[in-house]
Amino acid sequence: LEAREPSVIDEAKPDVTRDMAVKTFSRRPDAAAQLSAEVAAVATLLTLPQHPNIVEYRGAFANADGSVSVVMELMDASLAGRVLSEADVEKVADGVEAALAFLHSGDVMLVHNDVKPGNILVRGSDFGGVRLCDFGSSASLCADGTTMVSRGSMMYMSPARVRGESYGPSSDRFALGVTLVELLTGRHPFAAIVAGVASPEER
Known about the structure:
Number of strands: 8
Order of helices and strands: EHEEEHEEEEHHH
Strand order of the largest sheet: 1-3-2
Helix content: 25-40%
Distance between the termini: 19 Å
Shape: globular
């Protein structure tokens, strides 16, 4: 995340006096799908009441070099590489599960598709503020509650996603379960299996 002042901000979120984080997508062709998913999700979230367990997005703007930046609230840290106590893991579980329930609801109909420690942000040492972020792999759910979009980190994909089958909200909950085990033990529960089939970029 690159922290700097945006040049253009969504009119629905006019207050830019607080600290913010800016995530910039390059204009490379291989970043197009991620950018499209992120901007679509942000556009949806900006029309809805702010959920306390989803990072607050404030809009997006284009840069002179053709890249696009997404503006969000600035949090203290992600949970990548962290090992937590049982009490703190329970707080993370409650927060992320609440965020997912909101995303999967009829008002939003999104699967996050990349729930993992690095996409969970916290504020403060007491984990009172748990936020889910990074919607670059997200996908809209069809009317039957499923999708077949294949994006995200393979180490956290459900079996249905790995097999290329249609999947639904339960895939996000599978990823959350894997994440919670990793946060509690310091080890990915399927590390040995995934290491044999996924490249470092896919993990």
